[in-house]
Amino acid sequence: MAEIHPTAIIGAKAGIAEQVEIGPYCVLGPDVVLEDGVVLRSHVAIEGRTRIGAGTAIFPFASIGLPPQDLKYAGEDSELLIGKNNTIREHVTISPGTAGGAMVTRVGDNNLIMIGVHIGHDSVIGDHTVLANNAQIGGHVNIEDYVILGAQSAVHQFVRIGRQAIIGGLSAVVQDVIPYGSVTGERAGLMGLNLVGLKRRGFSRDKIHTLRAAYRLLFAEEGTLAKRLSDVAEKYGDNQAVMEIVDFISSASSRSVCLPRSRSAA
């Protein structure tokens, strides 16, 4: 049976699986669902239509699923879905969706969400991300798998961050970041590829060399971006990682793409 501290307040209809641990002074609303192995350390507040996946641990003073910080929110019955095996540290805030978005905020599996992180309404967080202390994520943001956000970075609403990108600490990201990209700066600029991340994820030297060559061609000074995209696709069309970048830039977005401050950066 679930282990629930006597000081915890649990909504009568909340769904609590077996092997759940709920520590002192936690407060759960009636529509909350906790899957097997969830641990709430203490002083955790969870409300709304919120589901927490198996094996996720939430630390003190986290605020999960409470009404979003959106003046247009009118109490609509939106959702927050958090996946498996996440670590959500102290003072994290995660908002549910809104009618102005998809009516749901999603967080995937195996993410490390550090102290003071905010995840805004209608955002989508992939798997295996690291969101460092006090990283701030606006509404409608899409962060793909294996992304790392540095401490005190901020991501503007509607921005997309591609797979395996890395964002430097204290960076303000107001444009889309390509997969495998590395950005930093007060107004973040593209500094090159996330070479450390590529090596950690097992990319061979040849694959990294090809990615760097495609990057240089894609962000060269000559020609238009559309022409360079076409040239890269023609030359490296059989390379999956390169085509991820091409498809990412080519897909529709309300934000422009983050570009290098120096075209020689690689």
Supply the key terms.
alpha/beta, UDP N-Acetylglucosamine Acyltransferase, domain 1, Udp N-acetylglucosamine O-acyltransferase, Domain 2, 2 domains, eleven-stranded mixed β-sheet, 4 helices
Describe the structure.
The protein has 266 residues and is of the alpha/beta class. The protein has 2 domains: 138 residues, 3 Solenoid (UDP N-Acetylglucosamine Acyltransferase, domain 1), CATH 2.160.10.10; 53 residues, Udp N-acetylglucosamine O-acyltransferase, Domain 2 (Up-down Bundle), CATH 1.20.1180. Helix content is 16%, strand content 25%. The protein contains 4 helices and 28 strands. The strands form 3 sheets. Strands 1-4-7-10-13-16-19-22-25-27-28 form an 11-stranded mixed beta sheet. Strands 2-5-8-11-14-17-20-23-26 form a 9-stranded parallel beta sheet, with no helix packed on it. The protein has an 8-stranded parallel beta sheet with strand order 3-6-9-12-15-18-21-24, with no helix packed on it. The longest helix has 14 residues. The chain starts with a strand and ends in a 16-residue tail after the last helix. The mean pLDDT is 96.
Class by SSE composition:
alpha/beta
CATH architectural category of the largest domain: 3 Solenoid
| CATH level 1 class label of the largest domain | Mainly Beta
Instruction: State the domain count.
Output: 2
Rg of Cα set = 20 Å
CATH superfamily of the largest domain: Hexapeptide repeat proteins
How is the largest sheet built, in terms of strand order? Answer: 1-4-7-10-13-16-19-22-25-27-28
Query: Can you give the helix content as a percent range?
Result: 10-25%
Provide a count of the helices: 4
Q: Could you tell me the mean pLDDT? A: 96
DSSP strand tally: 28
